[in-house]
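Predict structure. Input: Cell division protein DivIB, 285 residues.
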Amino acid sequence: MAKRPVTRIDPRKELSPYLNHEFNQQRNSRKSKAKISASLSSLQAERRRSLRRRLGLIMTVSILMIAGLGFYVSPLPNISTVKVTGASDLPTKGIVRTSKIKASDKVFDYIFQQKDLSQKLAKKYPEIQSAQAHLGHVNQLILQVNERPTVGYLKDGDVYRKILNNGKIGSQSVNWTKVDHEKPIFVGYNKSATLKEDLKLFDSLPESFRKQVKLLSGNTRRDSQIILVMKDDNVVIGNTVTLKDKINDYNQIRLKAGKHSLIDLEIGAFSRPLTSSEKKAYGIS
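Output follows.
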């Protein structure tokens, strides 16, 4: 019997694919573990940095709050001086007294109470429209007062009081030298109701006409009558109900009438020269 040929098998060669596969898997596993480890280390480092930032921020805010609180409770922010600006005809000491600002108060307390401060001062002084508190030096409070516009002056004996844009009368008296002569003067108004009515009518007239008026007289024969003394020394008499409609005729009549004339718009529309007694009554020389 013939012998079968013997085939030699190399075990290493047969096992090589398997061994190579196992080796590659182990190598890939080690790489994956290394990557995961590196990612975890990076994440932990980022968390530590974030924690340090948060702690730093908390410590900074805490230190600033403690320092601010320490400064607030110390005598340093206490008001030492008060400077009042913008109140041309109002008493500075009276404003400070009305505001109830004391030397023991804190500067910052009034900076955040602007509305209450304005209401308190306006109640005492109608001339004040608003007031703001500002920090001057470290412990100086600047009280900025904003006055209401003046639309005219009310003659009160030998002095004058401002008529404000809201119809109220100023609390302070001013001398003739401090009167703004571009504004009209209201003379002989003993009743506040009549003054308010005439002031309302005056405000409704054209601005070009209002600028020519230097005086309004409350010494009228009838409540419905209004008397205006012009800057050119003419006198206009009108009816409070119809004057606004007739005022357009004034310039045309004035040109024909000449100086020192009485222009009557109360019933019709005519003019005549002023008498000597009328000139004296209206202060025309």
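The chain is about 45% helix and 25% strand.
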